[in-house]
């Protein structure tokens, strides 16, 4: 197994509240890995730790085997990590295409060449523009490139946020509740999009999600946390049958 992203004994406290309590997990390269647990279990805090938005008082985070404890969010983007957010963070007054291109900022290149609009800068812009269109087509956004994002349905805004993350040419994407607020049709479409991103682009995916149909059908492996600590991990089948997970999160009435 080749580890893409790993944390060891990560602990985060907010005053007297322990948000993450010696959490361990390992996201294998090329896989879709899920993180589930009750509200307040520490899932988003852990996402913020892994993407280096949140400091932690103990433990370590590794990316491709190397420590990133002292890295900042922009360093993680350069290393090849992108993420989406539980609450959509898009530029509503900008078009779909403009929002996607914002994600490609790390690929722009030499600022001097861009300042004077040199041939290399023009070539880079053409390349990024074409790449943005390819991503939009993959996510079925090609007919909305000139639409202001605020005018898009909620499910399409979720796609734009994913497209913006893909524009940075990442090796791994952290998806924070990608289908939250989506209807059944939008959820099913996003399931297939996530599978395609993983399968066709070879991008590792680590996702937090409360929709169990999404988690159990797209994930290769799942971690469960409760009260900020590891509760269980395993394949979807193993997790669904785990009595601790059923008791703490899924409930006795849960059916796969």
Brief account:
With 256 residues, this protein is α/β, with parallel strands linked by helices. It contains 10 helices and 10 strands. The strands form 2 sheets. The protein has a 6-stranded mixed β-sheet, sandwiched between helices. A 4-stranded antiparallel β-sheet has the order 2-1-4-5, with helices on one face.
Question: Topology, pairings included?
Answer:
Layout: E1 3-14, E2 17-28, E3 32-36, H1 43-50, E4 58-63, E5 66-67, H2 73-79, E6 81-83, H3 96-102, H4 111-115, H5 119-138, H6 154-166, E7 172-176, H7 184-201, E8 204-208, H8 212-218, E9 221-226, E10 229-234, H9 236-241, H10 243-250
Task: Describe the overall structure.
It is a single chain. With 256 residues, the chain is an alpha/beta fold. The protein has 2 domains: 1-80 and 170-256, Rossmann fold; 93-168, no CATH class. The chain contains 10 helices and 10 strands. The strands form 2 sheets. Strands 6-7-8-3-9-10 form a 6-stranded mixed beta sheet, with helices on both faces. Helix 3 (96-102) runs parallel beside helix 6. The radius of gyration is 19 Å and the shape is globular. 39% of the residues are buried.
